[in-house]
Design brief:
The complex is a heterodimer of chains A (about 250) and B (about 650). With about 250 residues, chain A is an alpha+beta fold. In chain A, about 35% of the residues lie in helices and about 15% in strands. The chains are: A alpha+beta (about 250), B alpha/beta (about 650).
């Protein structure tokens, strides 16, 4: 099939603008990123600078790939990262608009590549259990109810890609942050530090310049791992409880 | 023999099952106030790197950790699906440290070092404890205790798992432990920095040269010890299940500076991957080995049925070839055996799918026996992934799978302490050669990465660093650092300056084809000899005609790729040399000249029961082979049988 691509270019000779490319011979079995590979090979052959985009595992698990495709983070399919979108979902002659994830807290590095290190700093502010190597008790000495463990897992499935921020009109990181708060608060190992954790992580999230949550729920709709907004409700509850119960208030 | 004296494995004295305890009781320690004065560099932030950086940071060393990713959480360990082995014997099914040790040695076709593997089995149980304490959400039973599944090459259920995302959850656990140390200030993290050389001073490794991938600037970093946790080199085949950025550069640069490369030809070809669909293909996707717990591999008995709809092929016309050939292990034979069997039936013309290079992995019986809901609970996310990529629903039609390059058992040669032949330089995880022999068993890579990082290096690195307490801070303002930085800069400007006509990608693709055709699942003397010539010619062509766009002093992914492919072009030749010199078949290394009448790998223990460790001798010079002979004190060496 034949496609028209409108791609955001920024850096080098581009000040920040959409550039239009024609791409012929797109095969329906290609992945979206393989389609961009083909474009880049053609650009290199013409001695032009290839489009910078991030990717790595191409299996939907590392969280490196991003892109807003036709206005949607990770493209048109529910519960799917960009690297798992295949061209069989597009029609011959279509125009596709490709932009980077846009948020104040995710500055653009080049073209479609953004800096998501704010997420690392949120985890560093408390998204862990304080346990040193070698201190652990026998694994089976902590029984955890199966459904509870499963709910924790649902939150822990977050891949840290940032689609929730890109999808949110406020560029809020509530879904990301709440997924980690939930993952750990739902487990006995993490419950010990739940109060201090939620206070620190929310403070860091605000410091990074992410927006507030206004219950739009676009984050849940676009999350490639289908993380539920229930986690945001849980984080709000944890936060309130911590605010009133913490000795530090 | 004088040369081989260079290879001292430093195996501790005493009976096998007491060596590690003996070692821990006798190794020199570094006191807390001295640890503060010692710098350690960790390159890579996967399971081995993140767990090592976190653990060494906790101990009080000054740690710097480097990754080329935008975040340490992206490392390719994250993509491991199936699980992690540990000799917990929670199932009461006869497992023990000895059995895990034995299975690993046997699975590796008697080409791994006993002492290292026994230690791995010993520390395996502590890994599970550690991960659970960190909040890793392993699968559980209704009673709230941990669940297990079985994996290839074993007859017990010792694999702990977290849905089909075990690697992700373990890596996030290690990443969180690392994040905690970053916040505590014991680890300084460098994202988007790629190591391009190691620096040696008076024969010791003293630091690294890295490139800041955003600005393109080269940086010097010094340390009293450097640990490479930089993964495997499966991407030398171009198409593999590795992530796109996985590469050999860190290990290869260290090799050129004096670290021997161990068993480079030992490559794991994983039997269950989604088949290649076209020339544009950039990578292959693994379907977890756990699927072979319930899925049955088959092809039609008759070649003329290969293009039929699988549901129209009656039971009596199907050949469940693994169950037929290996009744004791059935579909759960080790990976090398399952891969070769798939290749054999396809070579006979019985392969299915458009290319004829695929076999069926069928879940119809499992769905009949347990119900769709149970199968969905076990493998739901894998089935979904399969459907996204192929457009076919595996609940209704059998999966089509074919072997693909997945893991490299070879890597930098290390001694018992995980130190390479370059003093002060360590290698951990997939980057070293140590634990898997000629074939790795499923769910053992995660185990090894975390064992090395959490429980081995924190002890063994002290042995070396205890002699460094009087060294003081190491300056980077020295002729050695300057020379190393200059050589990296010159190499980059050479690459940028070629200004040829072919893309980096096109060279990589051609190299991959040579490697897959001639150094892949089946290898011959003729093929390997040809491959060495072809790779040399391709390498010369690369340096004559490659085109790298952009500038060196900016964000430039094409330049990153060019540096990596240049190193693959050197590694590929060494792999072929190693495969050519090893006149036997063992594990993942299958020389077609050396097989039993029924097509199994035929080892030659008299002549090849050793680790081949190659020493760099300069460009276009033949590397020198050193041998570490393997002595089995406990395991009785026999022909591997899964029948």
């Amino acid at each position: 099939m034949r496609l028209t691509l409108k791609i955001w270019r920024q850096g080098g000779k581009y000040k920040g603008e959409f550039v239009t490319y024609q791409l012929d011979n797109v095969n329906e079995h290609m992945s979206f990123l393989e389609m961009l590979d083909v474009l880049n090979e053609q650009l290199v052959a013409r001695r032009e600078e290839p489009v910078a985009f991030e990717h790595d595992c191409r299996e939907g698990i590392c969280g490196t790939c991003s892109l807003v495709i036709d206005g949607r983070a990770h493209g048109p399919m529910k519960g799917t990262t960009t690297c798992q979108v295949h061209m069989r979902h597009y029609k011959d002659g279509e125009t596709i608009v490709i932009e980077p994830f846009r948020a104040q807290a995710f500055p653009v590095i080049k073209d479609l590549v953004v800096d998501r290190s704010a997420f690392d700093r949120i985890i560093q502010s408390g998204g862990y259990v304080n346990v040193n190597t070698g201190q652990a008790q026998d694994a089976n000495s902590i029984p955890i109810e199966k459904d509870q463990a499963s709910r924790s897992f649902d939150a822990a499935a977050c891949i840290g890609c940032g689609a929730c921020v890109a999808a949110c009109p406020n560029a809020s990181a509530m879904l990301f942050t709440s997924a980690k708060v939930s993952h750990l608060a739902l487990l006995p190992q993490g419950a010990v530090e739940r109060r201090q954790r939620v206070l620190s992580m929310v403070a860091q999230m605000d410091k990074e310049g992410f927006g507030r949550c206004s219950n739009v729920k676009a984050c849940e709709a676009e999350c490639p791992k289908e993380i539920s907004v229930e986690n945001i409700a849980r984080m709000n509850r944890e936060y309130l409880a911590a605010t009133f119960a913490s000795e530090k208030v | 023999m004088a040369k081989s004296a260079k290879l001292d494995a430093k195996t501790p004295p005493g009976p096998l099952d007491q060596k590690w305890d003996y070692y821990k009781g006798h190794v020199a320690l570094v006191s807390p106030n001295n640890k503060r004065r010692i710098d350690v560099i960790i390159v890579g932030s996967g399971l081995a790197g993140a767990s090592a950086a976190a653990s060494l940071g906790e101990l009080g060393y000054n740690v710097k950790c480097f990754t080329y990713h935008d975040s340490p959480r992206r490392a390719h360990s994250i993509a491991a699906q199936g699980g992690i082995n540990a000799a917990k014997n929670y199932r009461n099914d006869g497992d023990s440290v000895f059995r895990l040790f034995y299975d690993t040695i046997k699975g590796g076709d008697y080409r791994a070092r006993e002492s290292n593997v026994h230690r791995l089995a010993e520390v395996s149980t502590a890994i599970i404890d550690q991960c659970v304490a960190q909040g890793v959400p392993f699968a559980r039973e209704y009673g709230g205790l941990l669940d297990n599944r079985s994996f290839g090459g074993t007859q017990v259920s010792r694999t702990f798992y977290a849905r089909g995302q075990t690697g992700q959850q373990l890596l996030i656990g290690a990443y969180q432990a690392l994040s905690r140390q970053i916040a505590a200030g014991t680890v300084k993290m460098y994202n988007r920095h790629e190591m391009l050389d190691v620096v040696t001073v008076d024969g010791q490794c003293r630091g690294v040269i890295v490139r800041n991938l955003v600005t393109g600037q080269l940086e010097r970093h010094s340390a009293h010890a450097v640990v490479l946790c930089t993964g495997g080199y499966g991407n030398v085949f171009y198409l593999s299940t590795n992530a796109m950025m996985c590469n050999v550069t860190a290990a290869w640069r260290a090799h050129r500076r004096g670290a021997f490369f161990g068993n480079p030809c030992y490559t794991q070809i994983h039997p269950t991957c989604i088949p290649v669909s076209g020339d544009y293909q950039s990578k292959l996707t693994l379907m977890s080995e756990s699927l072979r717990n319930d899925g049955r591999c088959w092809v039609p008995k008759k070649a003329e049925d290969a293009k039929k709809n699988p549901r129209d092929i009656p039971e009596e016309d199907r050949d469940y070839y693994l169950e037929r050939r290996y009744p004791a292990f059935g579909n759960l034979v080790p990976r090398d055996i399952a891969s070769r069997a798939a290749k054999q039936v396809c070579d006979e013309g019985r392969g299915v799918g458009a290319s004829g290079l695929a076999v069926y992995l069928d879940f119809a019986d499992a769905i009949k026996r347990f119900g769709k809901a149970t199968v969905e609970a076990r493998y739901g996310n894998l089935f979904e992934m399969y459907e996204k990529i192929t457009g076919e629903n595996p609940y209704e039609t059998p999966m089509r799978i074919y072997p693909a390059v997945h893991y490299t058992m070879g890597g930098l040669w290390v001694d018992y302490e995980l130190m390479t032949t370059l003093p002060g330089l360590y290698a951990a995880g997939e980057a070293n050669f140590s634990d898997h022999g000629a074939n790795r068993l499923g769910a053992s890579a995660l185990m090894q990465g975390l064992a090395d990082g959490y429980f081995v290096l924190p002890y063994t690195i002290g042995s070396y660093l205890s002699n460094e307490i009087r060294t003081g801070a190491i300056s980077t303002n020295t002729p050695e650092f300057e020379a190393a930085e200059n050589s990296v800069r010159e190499r980059i400007s050479h690459l940028m300056g070629v200004g040829g006509s072919q893309s980096v990608e096109s060279f990589h693709r051609r190299l991959g084809k040579i490697m897959w055709d001639k150094c892949g699942m089946g290898r011959t003397k003729e093929g390997l000899t040809e491959a060495i010539g072809e790779i040399r010619a391709l390498r010369a062509e690369f340096w004559r005609d490659v085109f790298v766009p952009g500038r060196p002093d900016e964000y430039n992914p094409e330049l990153e790729k060019a540096c990596r492919v240049a190193d693959f072009l050197e590694l590929g030749e060494l792999m072929c040399r190693d495969a050519l010199h090893r006149n036997e078949s063992c594990g993942g290394h299958f020389r077609e000249e050396y097989q039993t009448p029924d097509g199994e790998a035929k080892r030659d223990d008299d002549d090849f029961m050793y680790v081949a460790a190659w020493e760099w001798q300069g460009e276009n010079a033949e590397p020198e082979l050193h041998k570490e002979s393997l002595e089995y004190e406990v395991v009785k060496v026999s022909q591997r049988s899964y029948k």
